[in-house]
Description:
Elements: E1 2-9, E2 16-27, E3 33-35, E4 39-41, E5 47-60, E6 63-66, H1 72-86, H2 88-106
Antiparallel strand pairs: 1-2, 2-5, 3-4, 5-6
Amino acid sequence: MRRFHEITLDELGHQSALDVEIEFVFRAGEPELRFPFDHQFPGSPPEAELIRLSVLTWGNGGEYRKRGDSWIWNDLDRIAEEIITNNWEDSHREDCISDAVERENER
């Protein structure tokens, strides 16, 4: 199931920040199942697979710019993609999973 998650990246320094929309595929985990006679299915954890991302706004020293047609947005997308993919397994993946699970539980 495709999901979206928004984050703010502050790793740029110089009072810059990027608000980024992450599109990902979410697969809910399967619970562990136990059967008689010592048979069991171990289950699986929930998963999130990064599909694409897009910078929505760029903040620079208190000034915020919304996405436009300028060439800079493609470069900002590449910068955000590098930061997110480098930290995907450590943090951003878990943030996306937590957000998706929370939304599933709201249903």
